[in-house]
């Protein structure tokens, strides 16, 4: 019974130190639900899990009488879980012969393994077009979701990444052509891997616990 208590105590210590290492590596400020204009504040950064987001940018344009969506018209909602990131929600909409474009950029820092881009709340008629292209220069990455005459793709994914930093720009474009085009939700999510320091500490703890148990067995024999 005493032996079991010692094992449980050591295991608890290992897990506690691992969690402490991971927590100490994450800045305190958490991302919150607010408008994009808040995220554009100079020097702003925030975290979701073990990911840090910073250097937000935004630009918008419109033609044919359409109204460009301002930064304070876009609601940003943090998404947590196995895939962490943001949901951007706004009333993007154009009619016949109109068009608008919104470009949202930011840098994400952490252990990144997968990247997902998706859209929802969209619709087109009579040749209308909705497209969202996401790109990164370093490394060169590209994702695309769309709804137009050629078809519909609501989700695009890149897997097998091993990155610690990524700067992305999402180009949200709507063109009415002879009809209308609407969009309300854009999701951008990242799959993450555990922090290396946390993994090493946990592994070291397991090795130490194995050594302790081995010494106990030898002392009894």
Please provide a written account of the structure.
This protein has 221 residues and is of the alpha+beta class. The protein has two domains: 1-25 and 195-221; 32-192, Jelly Rolls (Sandwich), CATH 2.60.120. Helices cover 24% and strands 50% of the residues. It contains three helices and 13 strands. Strands 1, 2, 3, 4, 5, 6, 7, 8, 9, 10, 11, 12 and 13 form a 13-stranded antiparallel β-sheet that branches. Helix 1 packs antiparallel against helix 3. The longest helix is centred in the last third of the chain and has 25 residues, at 196-220. It is globular and about 80 Å long. Mean pLDDT is 85; it is low at 7-11, 13-28 and 197-207.
Task: List its traits.
221 residues, alpha+beta, Jelly Rolls, 2 domains, 13-stranded antiparallel beta sheet, 3 helices, 50% strand
Question: Could you name the CATH class of the largest domain?
Answer: Mainly Beta
**Range of helix content:** 10-25%
- Order of helical and strand elements: HEHEEEEEEEEEEEEH
Total of DSSP H or I helical runs spanning 4+ residues? 3
Overall SS class: alpha+beta
* Total count of strands: 13
Described by the principal axes of the CA atoms, the overall outline is: globular
The number of domains: 2
> Per CATH, what is the topology of the largest domain?
Jelly Rolls
Largest sheet: 13 strands, antiparallel
Beta content: over 45%
The CATH architecture name of the largest domain reads Sandwich
Instruction: Calculate the mean pLDDT score and round it.
Output: 85
Rg: 24 Å
């Amino acid at each position: 019974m005493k032996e079991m208590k010692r094992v449980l105590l050591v295991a608890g210590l290992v897990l506690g130190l691992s969690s402490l290492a991971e927590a100490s590596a994450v800045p305190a400020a958490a991302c919150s639900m607010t408008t994009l204009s808040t995220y554009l504040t100079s020097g702003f950064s925030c975290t979701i899990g073990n990911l840090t987001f910073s250097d937000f940018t935004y630009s918008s344009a419109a033609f044919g009488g359409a109204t460009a969506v301002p930064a304070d018209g876009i609601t940003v909602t943090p998404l947590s879980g196995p895939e962490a990131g943001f949901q951007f929600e706004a009333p993007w909409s154009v009619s016949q012969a109109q068009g608008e474009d919104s470009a949202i950029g930011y840098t994400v820092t952490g252990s990144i393994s997968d990247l997902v881009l998706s859209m929802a709340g969209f619709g087109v008629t009579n040749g209308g077009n909705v497209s969202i292209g996401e790109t990164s220069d370093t490394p060169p990455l590209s994702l695309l979701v769309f709804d137009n005459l050629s078809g519909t793709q609501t989700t695009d994914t890149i897997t097998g990444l091993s990155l610690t930093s990524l700067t992305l720009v999402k180009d949200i474009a709507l063109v009415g052509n002879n009809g209308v085009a609407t969009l309300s939700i854009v999701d951008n999510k990242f799959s993450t891997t555990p922090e290396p320091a946390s993994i090493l500490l946990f592994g070291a703890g397991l090795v130490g616990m194995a050594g302790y148990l081995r010494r106990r067995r030898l002392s009894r024999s």
